[in-house]
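Running this now, will post back.
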Amino acid sequence: MASTVTAPATTAPHLLRQNAASQVDSSVNENLRHAKDVTTIFNYYKDPEDGGPPAPAYIGKPETYERPTEPRKMIVHDVRGEEDRYTLDGTGFQVWRHVSKEKEFVDEEQIKREYYPEVETILKDAANTPRSSSSTGASQILIFDHTIRRPSPTDTANDPSQALRGPVHRVHIDQSYKAGPQRVEHHLPESAARLLRGRYQIINVWRPIKTVRKDPLAVADATSVAEEDLVPVQLIYPDRVGETFSVRPNERHRWYYLGNQTPEETLLIKCFDSVIDGRARRAPHSAFTLEGKEGEEERESIEVRALVLHPPEENGE
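Update: finished.
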């Protein structure tokens, strides 16, 4: 559960943000508290007692997604009013305002026909923003899937696959470093050799369908998540093997969300970036419980994942 935390009025907000880089333990250090902060429980990866690798997950077998977790109490900071501080290349996520023509998201073909082009526009507009640190630099966009999360009209007890469509209360990253180039090869086999010489990214464009009152989405600052915190998990498709990242707990993780996020406020989340030059490469994310909001309307959202491509000739090759 999450609870609102009020900071002392004499503490400067910028000092609180600096302190957020320090250790956060289960007691929640009072020095980190900010007027818009909440505390909540995140479910992290729990290493098997035998020291072995995680069991793979299988597409179409929702029971394989379940695995032991290690809950940790953490602080989550509301970025509202200071959205410009957080960028794809700086922290691994970015708030992007966009009004969609699509409102209901109930027709799959209409989503692909009408909404996919809007997502492409979002990513290309983000590429041309004056804030270079948040630019995708995209010249080619390829959307490869989307997921809609809303309450199921069916009984999830009798249809476990429907439970996957709800908010995921588990810290994860949609793609691993291994999966990034595999996505290019899988979706663009004829041009993959050339594209893999350039920069390529995978970005999740996450949008609420209604204003979020319950189970908001939090994203961790990529710079606060060490490489050793990442755990590759195989994702088995009928015709290939993919891979995602689960995440081990670490008190240094810094978490953020956008309070009362509206359908006009998309959240761009970097799942993968091929460059290794200090820019953010991936940002873990998870739904979390807001204390006192359990009775609010269930969350509805759509997430669209896309390859964002920068052909090598753009880099002077």
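The mean pLDDT is 85. More later if anyone needs it.
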